[in-house]
Design a protein that fits this description.
By secondary structure, the chain is mainly beta. It has one domain (2-175). Helices cover 13% and strands 38% of the residues. An 8-stranded antiparallel barrel has the order 2-3-4-5-6-7-8-10. Strand 4 and strand 5 form a beta hairpin. The longest helix has 12 residues, at 151-162. The radius of gyration is 17 Å and the shape is globular. The relative contact order is 0.25.
Length: 190
């Protein structure tokens, strides 16, 4: 999950171990809005060892409830929502194509205009008492190292991950989606 969430806004194709990431049965955060407009065109990279690797692009459209995959790479990443969090970050709720009952989570951290770091929310970032109190194991059909159920649990793990200032994960660049109108040049007599 770390890599899968990391390559997108959202974060699903990178192939790091799924251990240590939180998930839930269905989304925890309701009332999503199209935070980045009705269409998204993203360039994404995995971040490992201080380098951006494995470039790809994907398009997403807002369907009234979430951003859905509309073309390009990241086919394992079927849909997601963005929710404002603390310090200007967002929480990504991601619906993987291969596990549609399960929702996975990542932080989206702005590093420059149109550039974001995506970091999987990782149970290992929290202290042992938090993990013991909030993590439940999944079932045989949907195994999980840390299944959560509430907003407070999600926020506790998100804060712990944000406090670690990680350098791995994903780099996402928001590209023009084609709906922008080009600036008109004003003719000058000079």
């Amino acid at each position: 999950m770390k890599e899968r969430i990391g390559r997108a806004i959202i974060a699903a194709v990178l192939t790091i171990s799924l251990s240590g990431c939180i998930d839930s049965i269905g989304p925890i955060l309701p009332d999503a809005q199209p935070e980045f407009g009705p269409r998204l065109r993203l360039q994404f990279y995995s971040l490992r060892d201080g380098f951006a690797r494995e470039p790809g692009q994907a398009n997403f459209t807002w369907n009234g409830a979430l951003y859905v995959h509309a073309g390009g790479g990241m086919k394992d990443f079927s849909a997601f929502t963005l929710h404002p969090f603390e310090a200007g970050d967002y929480i990504i709720q991601e619906v993987p194509a291969k596990r549609p009952r399960i929702t996975e989570y990542a932080l989206l951290h702005k590093i420059a205009e149109g550039a974001y770091q995506v970091i999987a929310i990782d149970e290992d970032d929290a202290d042992e008492p938090t993990r013991a109190a909030y993590c439940r194991k999944g079932d045989k059909a949907d195994p999980s190292p840390c299944r959560i159920e509430t907003r407070d649990q999600l926020f506790a793990f998100a804060r712990a991950t944000a406090a670690h200032n990680k350098t791995d994960g994903g780099l996402v660049l928001r590209l023009p989606d084609g709906s922008e109108k080009p600036e008109r040049r004003i003719k000058s007599d000079h």
